[in-house]
Amino acid sequence: MRKLILMAGLLPVFVSANPRMPGDFPPHGEFGKPPMHHPMPEDADRLPPFLHELGLSEQQQSEIKSLLKAHMNLMGETRKNDHAIKMQLHQLSYSGAYSEQQATALIEQVLAAHKTQALQQAQLDNAIYKVLTAEQQTAVQAKISKMSADKPF
To answer: Is 108 helix (H, G, I), strand (E, B) or coil?
Structure first.
């Protein structure tokens, strides 16, 4: 009987030894399921970080988000094509039919794709810049001038 009373008295101590904190995910396997993961919003639904503190109007935000969405769709196709070319180069380099001319031609295609991607990114940046007011444009230029050349925003 003493043991039973002692165990009942110590039960709250053992239960509270490792309490669950608010916001903790359940450990893997609890309830037979892996922990919940919060889905990330689409990249087109988020504004670039350098635009967060500019006080954009709702209209500006919607215009920028539509530009970003169009750009993401375009870049998705471009990246698929770029990946296919890189896979061809990879397969060529590990085959008996390897030749410098074929490898050079594939590398030129990869470089052309990267050139196109850089141009599309510059066009997007300029389109976003044109949506901003004169004060916002000045603020963005000031932020960009403060950034170091080796740290992209």
So the answer is: helix
Cα–Cα distance for residue pair 109/44, rounded to 1 Å = 28
Query: 57-146 maps to which CATH number?
Result: 1.20.120
Block residue for tokens 């709702």: 58
Q: Please give the span between the terminal C-alpha atoms of the chain, in angstroms, as a whole number.
A: 69
Domain residue limits, the chain: 57-146
Q: Please, are residues 67 and 46 in contact by the beta-carbon 8 Å criterion? A: no
Least confident range from 1-10, 14-23, 71-80, 117-126: namely: 14-23
* pTM of the predicted structure, to 2 decimals: 0.61
DSSP-assigned letter for residue 34: P
At 13 the three-state DSSP class reads: helix
Cα 21 off chain centre by: 29
Identify the three-state secondary structure at position 120. helix
Neighbours of 3 (CB within 10 A): 7
